[in-house]
Amino acid sequence: MRTIFLTGGTGFIGRQLVEELLKEDVMIFLLVRSKSKATRAFQEKGILNEAALHFIEGDLTKTDLGLSDEDKDRVSNTDVIIHAGGQMDIQATQQEATSVFLNGAKHISEFAKSIHQLKGLQQFIHVVGYMSPFDDNNSKVAIDVFKEGHDYLKIKNPYEKTKFLADLYIRQQASAIGYPLSVINPPTVVGSSKTGSTEQTAGLGLLVASMRRGLMPFIPGGKGYKLPLISNDELAKFIVQVFKLEQSSIQTYTLVQDNQLDPDISELLEVMSESMNMAAPKISVPIRFVKALMKSGISKITQIPSDGLNFITNRKFPNDSSKKIMGEDWFTKTSVMNFFPAVVADLDYRLMYQNDQHNHLFERTLIGNTVIYQIPGEGKPFILLHGLLSDGEDLFPLGLELHEKTGQPVWIPDLPGLGRSPFKREKNLLDLYLNLVKELLGKAADGAHWIGHSFGAIILLEALVREYINMKNTITLLQPPVAKRNSKSFNVPQFMNKWALKLATANSIERYLIGNGLFENTESIPKHYIAKVSSSFTSPRILNTTLQLNRFLSKDYQGDFTKVPRDKLHIIWGDQDRSYSAPLHLGEIDVVPYGHHFPLSHPRETASYIL
């Protein structure tokens, strides 16, 4: 068993790294500021291993890392130090950045020296950004990184400058003391390849934030410029592989894929725009001109500091040493572009709901780039498709009721363009959603219980018309909107609807919900629902998708359900709906005394009706 001392383990990269390290025969001492907060964070992630993971309270910015005498003794037998500490904040002040990065480098290096002199340090692993100018050839540059005024690095941004000087200092100390050092240079880190979940909104999130506000009308740099990316789970796997090596000197590993395989910034913005259901920028502007614009005051509008453009580069990076460890095709197999749309949508979602709290009973995964929430169980899964003005999380209470009553699995997707799922352009809008049904059918080979609410019910009806769904499956339709009571309300020009939604107040949304019978009364509206709907319209992705689907259903859609077998359908109808009538032509209907959104407002009763 090897002992690891880890900094930055509670962060976006660190938690993923801990999960990977715990697969090895190790004992981890994790430097944290608060044991109680760290315990909660790892409990929520489901990786709290009390036998192998030990929290050590301290502070990277303090002498001796702020460790107590007792904790110093506990970590004195450390075999490997992994230093990944320091929050990403490109707008940090000189004092803040110096304290975290430079002082942090000094204190962790002193700790490494004491360990090496006591027992011999097997390896020091330092994680620092790919734009660092230092490598194995210039590790011994003889400058005092703490001396103010030197201009060895002509970088004004304190965040970047202190991180790079910390890189140099750690190299200097490893060379002087004589312990092995591995420096890992990842590009911009995004979320897991399994989920796309990107908790770190200060990196790529700055670009997403600018785009969603309509403030990215051009392509910075144009052809040849790139924004290299890596997922935090693949980065964690790479660090673990380096941890397993027997190093004898200083070795640098750059994790930027081959230049010809990395998409240009124009291609990246094209994918981002499609994911956000927006028009892509077409005009390229030189980086130096964009920086000049930012410095002239545009940064205050876009909220992107001019130094944030430093991550967009036309440099080439050597990666042979990384390929020797992971294989020649590792960069291709693990390309972020395979799930990049889901990353963009997740960041967009997080920027809408700053205090979002995901229900950890549901496991999150991706099918294609569509987010699926799942609860495992025995038997055929319940697959729930939500409607407009909602997303998958709104059906969590119903899903939990079904699971608790049956023990069966529950799958709830965020429909494309809504929730956390990216939009994708198709010639026929409905095909985007029917393709999802086909993908889910492939995952539920033994059949499933399909439940569609509102627009989700339309998707299932169309899947039946096209004979996608066979006899292994059952179908329940909740409030299928196929019989409009009054079409006049849909004749308002689309741009007027768009501005009405963007400018809607909480009171106007509530009046709409009650007036159209989505809920039978104010008391039946779930807590935070109105605030969530209001926030969702700050996203061009959700706003534009909602408008397109509303227009499609009200004007373009003419469903022909004459071939739908009535014996396959179980229909439940809330009779307080004032926009649609019960679809009697589809078969027998169970009527309930609720509004159109009754699966959201009455999940327990809805589960009983379904079962």
Question: What fraction strand?
Answer: 5-15%
Would you report the number of β strands?
A: 19
The number of helices is: 21
Shape estimate: elongated
Distance, first to last CA: 51 Å
Low-confidence stretches: 488-496
Gyration radius over CA: 27 Å
Q: Note the main sheet.
A: 8 strands, mixed
The helix/strand class is: alpha/beta
Spatial sequence of strands, sheet with the most strands: 12-13-15-14-16-17-18-19
- Helix content range: 25-40%
Average of per-residue pLDDT values: 89
Domain Thioester reductase (TE): 6-239
Protein name: Nonribosomal peptide synthetase MxaA
Domain AB hydrolase-1: 383-607
Organism: Paenibacillus helianthi
SSE map:
Elements: E1 2-7, H1 12-21, E2 26-32, H2 35-45, E3 53-57, H3 69-74, E4 80-83, H4 94-118, E5 123-127, H5 158-177, E6 181-185, E7 188-190, H6 204-212, E8 218-220, E9 229-231, H7 232-244, E10 250-254, H8 265-275, E11 283-285, H9 287-302, H10 320-326, H11 330-333, H12 340-352, E12 363-367, E13 370-375, E14 382-385, H13 396-406, E15 410-413, H14 429-443, E16 449-453, H15 455-465, E17 474-478, H16 494-502, H17 506-515, H18 529-536, H19 540-556, E18 569-574, E19 589-592, H20 598-601, H21 603-610
Parallel strand pairs: 1-2, 1-4, 2-3, 4-5, 5-6, 6-10, 7-9, 8-11, 14-15, 14-16, 16-17, 17-18, 18-19
Antiparallel strand pairs: 12-13, 13-15
